[in-house]
Design brief:
This protein is an alpha+beta fold and 452 residues long. It has 2 domains: 136 residues, Jelly Rolls (Sandwich), CATH 2.60.120.260; 271 residues, Zn peptidases (Aminopeptidase, 3-Layer(aba) Sandwich). Helix content is 31%, strand content 25%. It has 10 helices and 17 strands. The strands form 3 sheets. It has an 8-stranded mixed beta sheet with strand order 1-2-4-3-5-8-6-7, sandwiched between helices. Strands 9, 10, 12, 15 and 17 form a 5-stranded antiparallel beta sheet that branches. A 4-stranded antiparallel beta sheet has the order 11-16-13-14, with no helix packed on it. The radius of gyration is 24 Å and the shape is globular. Bound molecules: D-tryptophan (DTR), calcium ion and zinc ion (2 copies).
């Protein structure tokens, strides 16, 4: 890909780019009245205070994986749709959930000439008109036991459900957990489930959280780019434990959340990667091996209990439980605090060119902006080190959010910055100003958000 060629040549120019930038910032920076003398560092938002979820013991999750492995080994080496290993997996889960006090339902469907099963587990209580769901597909491909794909998601969802029972948790919302059949044949089980809900039943589902491959041996930490509140819940959790995340931009159509999204239900989820190769930038960020697939045993017979990264499985299991607690205790899945304004129009950023802006015209507020104004920045751009990012207040004051950094070769800027804007009037036109200060890599402003 030419991108690598340009990146190699970029290293030779990186130094000049940085020097050029130093001159630019020294000379051309606007004479901002309120620009802070030092850059406003991106603040990793603390985990929401509602995070009262218990820690999920990864040993418990792994014990379920061992059971799935035994089931596959005793049933032709897989847990695929239409095969005895799949039904045995359903029976294993159902016994655990029944013993834990759940109301379970086995929903039967037929596809590809075989009978398939969804397992639904309702936790008694909560507002029946606000149902939060978490799910995972339980079937493997026929070529292997499917321990990462998707024993990992199935086991983590089970263990979160058992944690709810152990805690005697009684959330505002009604909790429903689900395990889908025949995902590998095309999301068949989850499509059947959603397709058989009445419009009224669908409208009661406040959100669906999906977990498909969350223990990959060479893991990445990906968050689905779908409902913003669900996405923020996961991102804030990982930020709270110091683990950087990336947006999974290829999830659409790739797993069971799609069945819910197509019905207009808010969705989100986590993913640690399949056959795609981990980049060197990602290996720097997450560890593991660059140039190697996140899961080399994807859809293969080697997807066994040895095909799991325990740390990734643990972190994602804990993030799952955190999201179940955080999204079920409140009345709605609206942003937890403050009024949010967002401009999601894409604005192309000229390569090594002039600054461009995304703007928000705020009206109807009183007084000044807060001292902890939350500035949500989402810029899609390779080699983000090219970029200088400023918040421009209605009176023209510039607040530096991000400086250029020639060596920062990672992609995209997805951060929430905290700015002391208490000297600025809240009403007026606020701008997110972005400038690409080095050649070759390009991108665009994806969204600009202010939370007062
Ligand atoms: N289709 C899933 C694996 C998969 C591939 N890309 C994504 C993105 C998000 C979730 C899952 C996946 C499977 O093979 O089950
Ligand atoms: Ca844990
Ligand atoms: Zn699969
Ligand atoms: Zn899967």
């Amino acid at each position: 890909m030419t991108i690598h060629a340009s990146r190699i040549s970029r290293r030779r120019t990186a130094a000049s780019a940085v020097l050029a930038l130093a001159a630019l910032v020294g000379g051309a920076a606007p004479t901002a009245l309120a620009a802070p003398s030092t850059p406003v560092a991106p603040s990793a938002p603390a985990a929401p205070s509602a995070a009262t979820a218990p820690d999920i013991p990864v040993a418990n999750v792994k014990a379920h994986l061992t059971q799935f492995q035994s089931i596959a080994s005793a049933n032709g080496g897989n847990r695929a749709h239409g095969r005895p290993g799949y039904r045995a997996s359903v029976d294993y889960l159902k016994a655990k959930l029944d013993a834990a006090g759940y109301t379970t339902t086995v929903q039967q469907f037929t596809t590809n000439g075989s009978v398939g099963y969804n397992l639904i587990a309702d936790w008694p209580g909560g507002d029946a008109d606000q149902v939060l769901m978490a799910g995972a597909h339980l079937d493997s491909v026929s070529s292997g036991p499917g321990i990462n794909d998707n024993g990992s998601g199935s086991a983590a969802v089970l263990e979160a459900a058992l944690a709810v029972s152990r805690a005697g948790y009684q959330p505002d919302k009604h909790l429903r957990f689900a395990w889908w059949g025949a995902e590998e044949l095309g999301l068949v089980g989850s499509r059947y489930y959603v397709g058989n809900l009445s419009a009224t039943e669908r409208s009661k589902i406040s959100g669906y959280l999906n977990f498909d491959m969350i223990g990959s041996p060479n893991p990445g930490y990906f968050v689905y780019d779908d409902d913003p509140v669900i996405e923020k819940t996961f991102k804030d959790y990982f930020a709270g434990i110091g683990v950087p995340t990336e947006i999974e931009t290829e999830a659409d159509g790739r797993s069971d959340h799609t069945s819910f999204k197509n019905a207009g239900i808010p969705v989100g989820g986590l993913f640690t990667g399949a056959g795609r190769t981990k980049t060197s930038a990602q290996a720097q960020k997450w560890g593991g091996t660059a140039g190697q697939a996140f899961d080399r045993c994807y859809h293969s017979s080697c997807d066994t209990t040895s095909n799991i990264n325990d740390t990734a499985l643990d972190r994602n299991s804990d993030a799952l439980a955190h999201a179940v607690w955080a999204l079920s205790s409140g009345g709605t899945t609206e942003p937890p605090t403050g009024d949010t304004y967002e401009n999601t129009n894409d604005v192309a950023i000229p390569d090594n060119g002039g600054a461009v802006s995304s703007s928000l015209s705020i009206t109807g507020r009183t007084g000044n902006a807060p001292s902890n104004l939350q500035v949500g920045v989402d810029i899609v751009h390779t080699w983000r080190g090219d970029l200088v990012v400023d918040l421009i207040a209605p009176d023209g004051s510039a607040y530096r959010l991000k400086n250029a950094s020639g060596s920062d070769s990672a992609d995209n800027v997805r951060e929430t910055y905290t700015v002391d804007a208490s000297s600025e009037t809240a009403n007026g036109t606020w701008q997110l100003r972005v400038q690409d200060t080095a050649r070759y890599d390009t991108g665009y402003i994806n969204s600009f958000k202010l939370t007062f």
